[in-house]
Amino acid sequence: MSLQSDTKSETGPGRLISKGERSIYLDNYLWKTASNEVQDAESILPESSGGVSYQIPRARIEGELELDEGALLFGPASTPNLSGLHPNPVHIFKLWQTFLENVNPLTKIIHVPTLQQRILNASGNLDSMPSELEALMFAIYCAAIRSLSDEEVLQGFGKSRTTLLAQYQQAAQSALVKAGLLKTSNMVTLQAFVIFILSARGEYNPHTLWSLSGIAVRLAQRIGLHRDGSRLGLSIFETEMRRRLWWQITVLDAAISRMSGSTSSLYPLAYTRIPLNVNDSDLDVKMKEIPPESLGATEMIFCLMRYELGQWLERQSRSKAVGFDGYWETISGSSIPIEEKDRMIKDIEDVIERKFATHCDPSIPLHLMTMIVAWSVPLILRLAAHHPRVYHEKGELPTQTAKDLLFKTCLGVLEYGTILLTTEKMRKYLWHVDSQFPWDPLIYILDELRHRPIGDETAKAWHLIDVTCSRQYHRPGPRARSPLHLALANLALKAWAAHVAECERRHMSTIPQPNIIPTFIKLTQQKNLYSPPASTRVNASSSRDQDQRSTPARAATMDASPFSVVPQLREGVLRSTNPVDDNAHFASSAGLDPAESSPFDWAQWDASFQEYQQQSDSVGYF
């Protein structure tokens, strides 16, 4: 017996999906919306002992190993001699340098000078290293390999990325079990576990990851990371490293919670200060005085910006219990007037700009990453604040002006994301970008494209959708076969069919078919979700040929260098078309205007494409 039921309580609307002894409660808007697009609700349920229902069956990749996700909890069938699973010393330091270059700048939970010396010492005597350090080293190998492309791994290490990643993940699992993960009070073991989770986000399904992140939270509480070390009589160095680890766990747990259809209730437990704005070189184990904070950019700039955003979301929610959409409830709900939400968003935008973006040099990859995220955040927040669901809950409809502004806002999010995806020097951070997929802007754009099937902005939107989705859907692993991916693919095909139909009605040519459309068709047909019209049934090869004939919007985007696009987007999208400087436009269009609006089918679309709750990816995309 299968059951889908919507609930409404003091904490907001939820959805329970159950069959037999299995059930899952969807506790945020992203997953509740997606569940409407997946006709087979059972595919959303967690795995059962009888088999895997979470993803579409696929052929196993050569060299791929089966990961036992339960091994972390109950231990592997046998514990191998881990010393023989380490790479040779040359590869150890190559992986360490890769981690420092690609992963460490975005996580900052290890002290590089201290750990580097320990790795140096351990690499010469792998048989006698402490179990917690061994777990950390294997986790670092995993994260380093995860951050590289297939070609980079094969060229640098002589084996396929799939093979090495599975090999080191299995070794990391064994090492964590050997280190006594579930009963540990060792901070190095917890560091290893957090880095392991970061490396496994593309391999484990979100339900498993949410359980693992919950373990990380409990271990952090056991160690006392949720209490600031300055109140516990700890050293300056230890206090600072504990802060860094705790805050990374909070943003990781929030991001994973969102992707699993749940919410994070972590913040009320914590009284830990945000880390200092200092470099690793400013910290020393024996230091007796607190180092002065830098007024400019440090190695911590990206992490501190994320933590600032998380803290801001927590502050906004203090006046009410955490609701259906978690800490996004204040922004995404309808209890606060839109004008007040606009003021709140403008305040945090000013803080981010003053404390972070203005200190960045776009020629430095970490700074460019920080700038793009800093400029994207106000757009994402406004999507949450002005989403059609907010109007629907009040029995109103957004005006066409409001919908146009929101459409441009979402296009801005995708444009910024495209810079990260297409800029060569940002390749080393794509492992993080992959996990911050802009679900909510994409869903809103695709819904709107059903109602605005032609036009210059439509062509631009399809190009951005193509760039944004291609990497996500063409990578191997469960990330491209989850119910969320299926739901978005189904929406995209409906929007593309609307474009084709409108062009046929007007006797005009369609825009070049996006490369991603055949992938969407194949994916949805595997689950019998969608049977596209004949005009949309194409061979995978044909779209690539069509793609050579670029539209003007596509050519303008692709020909511009990142250094010309960044200021252009900053000025053109954020300052001109985004409600940052157009709060008056949003406010004036907050009422009902039947002449400018046509109602969404909220019953069919489940209060369609409801609110952004993220990142969590973060406080989410952050």
TrEMBL record:
GO biological process: DNA-templated transcription
Gene Ontology molecular function terms on file: DNA binding; zinc ion binding
Segments for region (Disordered): 531-562
Residue stretches making up the Xylanolytic transcriptional activator regulatory domain: 209-283
A Pfam family reported for this protein in Swiss-Prot or TrEMBL: Fungal_trans
Membrane keyword on record: no
SMART domains, sorted: Fungal_trans
Annotated protein name in UniProt: Fungal-specific transcription factor domain-containing protein
Organism: Aspergillus transmontanensis
Lineage: Eukaryota, Fungi, Dikarya, Ascomycota, Pezizomycotina
